[in-house]
Amino acid sequence: MLLLPGQGAQRERMAAGLYGVEEEFTAPMEEFFGRLGAAGARLRSAWLRPAPNGELDESAVAQPLLLAVGHALGRAVGAATGPPGLLLGHSVGELAAACLVGVFDPADVGALAAARSRALEDSGHGGMLAVAAPEGELPEDLGPRVAVAALNGPRQTVLAGPAMALAALERRLRDGGFLVRALRSGHAFHSPVMAGAALRFGAALAEFGPRAPRPGSTVVSTRTGVAVTSEQARDPHFWGGQLAAPVRYWPALRALLDTWGRRPGLVLLDGSADRSLSAPARHHPAVRDGASEVVPLLAAGRDAGGPADATVFAEAVHRLGDQRDHTAVS
């Protein structure tokens, strides 16, 4: 199962160690940058710049790059081991997953990114906070227009809303003993603040003619927690509405592990540069007992974005080959 990251998980030079090394990663990235012209050149420059790089805090930079890198990484995995049959994307990662299963034409990734950026212009500004607590332990009154934006783990809740209201809530939470961290976002993604942007993006997506996923490919929605239906996939506002809807990532991942984690077992391919997508899964009984396993696709920490990316990716491909050989024999 391929896990693809979204806003907040962007990192300087994420997956850049595969660029120019893995052809099936490089080609989609080059096509993406090329189709965006001068804007693509600026995005390439921002992507390859080492840390610290404040540009990645800007949604107009982070969102297109997360989409492009997630799509290219999925293409590279598919070329090396066969297309993933099951995909789970966080936020814009879900749109990358949709491109990988044929809902949107891969050639349109650049245009999709541009349409998403236009939808965000002059609306939805605010921020996002990660809180080390389950949703049920948080105050009932979060403040004006502040909402739960994502459930990323058993004790990982993300809140989003207008900047002033979010700042007041952050002070209140810290005073109450909560551990709080601001995420790299200038927009209040997955909250009611994004309602207008979601409608505009849905209308723009209609021009791309979304289709049902290819047979044998399944995207599990973090909005519904179950597989995206053919009807949903063809509805542009299903994908556009994601901007304003909460991301129930951990409930979706937990349900998959509860259902399939032991028989037949799942191989979780973590496409994030910080290993955040697989972090909550490592505590699930199916993973702890070895029935399912986590396989990172990219290097982490100081090695991220450099030659170690290619090493870790090659190790992941080798591990998948071993796993498929074992399945065939058994």
UniProtKB/TrEMBL annotation:
SUPFAM superfamilies in alphabetical order: FabD/lysophospholipase-like, Probable ACP-binding domain of malonyl-CoA ACP transacylase
Domain Malonyl-CoA:ACP transacylase (MAT): 3-302
Pfam family membership, one: Acyl_transf_1
SMART domains: PKS_AT
Residues annotated as transmembrane: none
Keywords linked to the UniProt accession: Phosphopantetheine, Phosphoprotein
UniProt-recorded name of the protein: Malonyl-CoA:ACP transacylase (MAT) domain-containing protein
UniProt source species: Streptomyces plumbiresistens
